[in-house]
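Tip: read the tokens left to right.
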């Protein structure tokens, strides 16, 4: 009797092929829930967004490009340009696991519009999509991950942070990206800002992971959540990596020898300069 009934059912579906195909899709695409005797599909991941603001801080105030600041060693510094890459941006879940939310981003403290609608106005804040849930902090790496660092800028669209249209962030001679660009002037005792300060750091050897920045975060569906980070500018020149006396060592393009050592000191200081 069962085989006869089954045959009749199959004949009915074969007579209406569209109905048969749809039923097959629903049967295969969902898991059977024996407790309620009905098919239950796996829920799709819900998303919200996260706005990350990285404020440059000097003497308790927000960094303002072109403004003169006095450092703890008495030297005066004016930063005219500061931008850097962050890679593998991820949120830390309550169980310690990590969720990647962005592969690479460019942070730029110059808020002047690009003037080209095809090129994003990279600033010190960015917004990325993130899965809903509870998190305990954020992690990211300083620099451009090796596989991306060795990629060709020409392969990216103008709206990508690694695009060739991103000004002054690629070493054509080294065929890799600058991780950090800091440029400005310093007064190291002369009474005028006549000392050029230039730190262009990069190469895979200076790629660094930054410790978790802890802060409870809840991402809700279709909602934007804020996450504020600070960067201690003075710590770039006086931190665990060592002290950088701008009257003696104001310039590094990474390279090798003493220039690389200076870039390494700067990088190791910057790694711990990020915080809440």
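Filled-in amino acids:
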């Amino acid at each position: 009797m069962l085989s006869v009934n089954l045959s009749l059912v199959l004949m009915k579906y074969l007579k209406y092929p569209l109905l048969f195909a749809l039923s097959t899709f629903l049967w295969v695409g969902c898991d059977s829930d024996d407790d309620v005797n009905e098919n239950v599909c796996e829920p799709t991941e819900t998303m919200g967004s996260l706005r990350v603001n990285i404020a440059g801080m000097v003497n308790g105030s927000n960094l303002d490009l072109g403004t003169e600041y006095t450092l703890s060693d008495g030297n005066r510094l004016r930063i005219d340009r500061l931008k850097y890459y962050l890679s593998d941006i991820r949120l830390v879940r309550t169980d310690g696991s990590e969720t990647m939310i962005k592969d690479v981003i460019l942070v730029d403290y110059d808020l002047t519009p690009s003037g080209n609608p095809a090129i994003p106005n990279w600033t010190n804040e960015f917004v990325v999509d993130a899965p809903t849930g509870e998190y305990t902090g954020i992690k990211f790496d300083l620099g451009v991950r090796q596989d991306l660092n060795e990629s060709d800028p020409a392969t990216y669209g103008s709206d990508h942070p690694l695009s060739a249209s991103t000004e002054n962030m690629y070493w054509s001679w080294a065929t890799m990206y600058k991780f950090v660009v800091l440029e400005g002037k310093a007064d190291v005792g002369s009474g005028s800002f006549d000392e050029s300060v230039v730190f262009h750091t990069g190469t895979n050897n200076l790629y660094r992971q930054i410790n978790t920045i802890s802060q409870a975060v809840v991402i809700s569906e279709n909602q934007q959540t804020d996450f504020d980070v600070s960067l201690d500018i003075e710590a770039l020149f006086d931190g665990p990596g060592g002290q950088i006396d701008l009257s003696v060592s104001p310039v590094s393009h990474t390279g090798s020898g003493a220039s690389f050592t200076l870039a390494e000191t700067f990088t190791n200081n910057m790694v711990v300069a990020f915080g809440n």
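Confidence is low (pLDDT under 50) at residues 1-42. The two ends are 72 Å apart (CA to CA).
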